[in-house]
Write a structure and sequence with these properties.
Blueprint (H helix, E strand, L loop, with lengths): L3 E5 L3 H13 L3 E5 L2 H10 L4 E4 L8 H8 L7 E5 L4 H9 L4 E4 L4 H18 L10 E4 L2 E4 L4 E4 L2 E3 L3 H12 L7 H9 L7 H15 L9 E4 L3 E4 L4
Helix pairs in contact: 2-3, 6-7, 6-8
């Protein structure tokens, strides 16, 4: 199956250049030029990944991302000229899976798209091992085939990367993973200065699964080392 990438940028030349770049790699592409148009396409057409600019007319990228996350868990890569650390943290906290700054390296962009799509399909309908289908720990039920999470019996929507991190930790309770190890396993690429990135994703996960994120029951910090999932058995 050919994956479809939605490219969202109000600069039509940039959007077209990215579409051509990805089409040469064998992907189908759709272009949108504001957040409202992007949401309409993402909700009504089959899209497997979105590349999203932030500063756009009609509806900005951040607003579109937050609305998208209420309905869809497809990977979202922010591609923006906003380069400050707080911009990146805000984007990741809103539900983005990755953040790339402009001007971008075309080879890096393609590599990240491939990595996210590979992980997306592996975590989704392409997982067929029944023994690994469900993971239960305490009040958490993670289903790999359905790519779903229930907390105390209630469905909770999580992003692709959050699912990957939680799956990794829950499959090896009590094992401590460094930030680099988490990044390698979930992003499927070599880490570089990823501590803050992993911290943001862990913080978002805790808000969704913990009764009190400040006193977590499930995901614990091992100071100076990394993170572990506390065995609930």
């Amino acid at each position: 199956m050919r994956a479809t990438v939605l490219v969202v940028d109000d600069d039509k030349e940039i959007a077209r250049a990215i579409c051509l770049l990805l089409e040469k790699e064998g992907y189908d592409t759709i272009a949108a030029y504001n957040g409202m148009e992007a949401l309409d396409i993402a909700m009504n057409q089959e899209v497997h990944l979105m590349i999203l600019d932030l500063m756009m007319p009609v509806m900005d990228g951040m607003s579109a991302l937050m609305k998208l996350r209420k309905k869809k868990n497809i990977p979202v890569l922010i591609l923006s000229a906003k380069t400050q650390d707080h911009d990146k943290i805000d984007g990741l906290s809103a539900g983005a899976d990755d953040y790339i700054t402009k001007p971008y390296n075309p080879r890096e962009l393609v590599a990240r798209v491939k990595s996210h799509l590979r992980r997306f399909f592996w975590l989704g309908d392409h997982v067929h091992n029944p023994s690994a289908e469900e993971i239960r720990q305490g009040g958490l039920l993670l289903n790999a085939n359905k790519r779903s999470l229930h907390v105390d019996g209630e469905p909770v929507r999580i992003t692709q990367k959050e699912f990957g991190i939680l799956s990794l930790l829950m499959r090896s309770p009590s094992k401590v993973f460094t930030s680099d190890e988490i990044y390698r396993a979930v992003w499927n690429s070599e880490p570089y200065n990823v501590e803050n990135l992993i911290m943001v994703h862990i913080s978002r996960l805790r808000v969704k699964i913990e009764i009190n994120p400040r006193e977590p029951q499930y995901i614990k910090v091992v100071w100076g080392v990394g993170y572990k999932f506390e065995d609930q058995e």
